Amino acid sequence: MIPNGVTRLVVLFDESAAPRSLEQLLGALGLSLEGDRRVRVHQSGVVTCRTESTPDPALLRQLSAREGVRKIVQLPPGQYLIDCVNPDADRTVTLPNGARIGGGQPVVIAGPCSVESVEQVCRIAATVKDAGALALRGGAFKPRTSPYSFGGLGEAGLRALTAARDLTGLPVVTEVLDTTELDLVASHADVVQIGSRNMFNFPLLYKAGRHDAGKPVLLKRGFGATVDEFLEAAEYIQLGRLAAGHESPGLILCERGIRTFEQSTRFTLDVGAIPILKDRSGLPVIADPSHPAGLRKYVLPLAAAAIASGADGLLVEVHFDPTHAWCDGDQSLNMEEFAALVDRINRIAAITP
Ligand code: PEP
Ligand code: MN
Questions:
Q1: Ligand 1 pocket: which of 200, 219, 223, 291 to mutate (most atoms <8 Å of CB)?
Q2: Which letter does DSSP use for residue 54 in this model?
Q3: Which of 250, 260, 327, 331 falls 20 to 30 Å from 38 in CA-CA distance?
């Protein structure tokens, strides 16, 4: 949480502008480019600062008009970029097939935990589409706790996802693990996923937002992250998007369960965070019922709870043969269970305001 009384500023400037003019601009605000812990220089012409005194609006207007300055955004305490840059911007995310996340109807994104082969992902994609999924998930780069576990097919996995999209028309949601793989993943994905373990990977967050392709990002909550930390992570992505000139927020938040003292589920799905995140960010908020459930029989009740609490969609792991899945088989639904889940959540959504 940002302490009361602290104003945050974002200055966008032309990188070709002399550092001297930026120094002067900051100087006018009582800040300094060098040796000032309140000032932070990000990539591609973005500087963020904190000041204890609220800057005079006339001074800010004057400074914004200076040569080399593209924009100065002032964030009052407790507000985020999304509220200050273009508060009327559409915060929903529309996928290439027209599915709109945050538009009122829950959108189900389904598929295997990890891509195992072209045949596997194409078969799953076709079946989840028939059952009502509007997007395909599948990991080609997998964050695994153990270096001896299957780490994904990498680029071949991305190509398999593309084949499944060609076959079914389902947009592809897939994870990026590292900044060095952003170009590759963004060239195949319709939505770039940043997983729970990377929610604190700040350079990745910023660069995913700043990426020229402008693909929407699906950010999963770190399993040890508070709601405030989750929203600050989202702010890195927004900062990147602002720097790149992407107009829309292009961001989906995903509650996927947190670590608590409770051991009987894999993680504790924080259902209460769903309405809070929606309230505080105005962004689409979806839930992943698979990773907190850990076991497939608990996936449906968690999905139902998430939709009843206002989630804009679900990210669900599905496999035609869960017992032989290469990753997370215990929590993967089979095809019949998935069809039952879609049916149930549609009925809940119909009576959820
Ligand atoms: C996933 O969705 O594939 C995944 C790895 O989930 P999480 O990052 O939430 O653990
Ligand atoms: Mn998984």
A1: 291
A2: P
A3: 250
